[in-house]
Design brief:
Blueprint lengths: L4 E4 L4 H6 L1 H6 L4 E4 L3 E3 L14 E8 L2 E2 H13 L3 E4 L9 E2 L2 E2 L5 H4 L17 H6 L12 H4 L8
Parallel strand pairs: 1-2, 2-6
Antiparallel strand pairs: 3-4, 4-5, 7-8
Length: about 160
């Protein structure tokens, strides 16, 4: 039998947990959840794209806390359901309304050895800029040993 996954995009973890039995009865054995990193997203009714602009790697936003995630995983596991989390490792949101966000670590973001590049694009029609400029989301340089062993990347 093939595995069936349901994407519970922008669902609160507590709501997913409350519906686990129905999810199992519907034949799903995997649930993909939205990113839980702290960032521009604070409420489930916020624009979806804000989920993909984290300020750091801490778990906890408008969808739930680390404790909520542990509870969900424990109950899902009891039903034979696996949880897949969408996580953003490569980028951090550096600005909000043109200013460096207070929740970001300014020293980290301004260290050019820690970021692959921080130059911002300005031409949305330029493929190179779309793919390679930060656009307010500078990519973290995880090739740098200091970054991999830094508090910002504890999972590497």
């Amino acid at each position: 039998m093939k595995n069936k996954i349901i994407h519970m995009f922008q669902w609160k973890l507590s709501d997913i947990k409350d519906n686990l039995q129905e999810i199992k009865e519907a034949g799903f054995d995997w649930i993909q959840i939205s990113p839980l990193q702290k960032g521009k997203f604070n409420k489930p009714e916020d624009d979806w794209w804000k989920l993909y602009q984290p300020y750091n790697y801490e778990i906890g936003n408008g969808l739930g806390t680390k404790e909520d995630l542990i509870k969900l995983c424990t109950e899902a596991d009891a039903l034979g359901i696996k949880i897949v989390a969408d996580i953003l490792f490569r980028q951090l949101a550096d600005v909000e309304d043109g200013w460096l966000n207070k929740e970001c670590d300014k020293d980290f973001l301004e260290n050019y050895d820690y970021m692959l590049h921080t130059y911002r694009g300005n031409n949305e029609q330029d493929r190179y800029e779309i793919c390679n400029c930060s656009w307010g989301l500078p990519p973290v340089n995880y090739y740098n040993d200091e970054v991999r062993h830094n508090k910002f990347y504890p999972f590497l």
